[in-house]
Amino acid sequence: MPKIFLLFALLMFGSTAAMAQAQGQHSGTDQEQKACARDVTRHCRKLMDQGDFAILACLQENRAKLTKACAQVLTNHGQ
Prior knowledge:
By secondary structure, the protein is mainly α. It has helices spanning 2-13, 17-22, 30-44, 52-61, 68-76. Helix 1 crosses helix 4. The longest helix has 15 residues, at 30-44.
């Protein structure tokens, strides 16, 4: 589940995500994290050890398959 927390650092801060990740800061509400947890596991499991940018790219590539809640989280954060 830690990868999901870092994913939301990317979603919330865009270009400052690397800085937030380096500082150990996590963003995204619990609700947002829960909204995408199943989608990350379902569609991006093989990438979970490849870093947050890979997971974000995977979610974007699988946008049509995402739950409405996770797709809305991405949309809300300009992804």
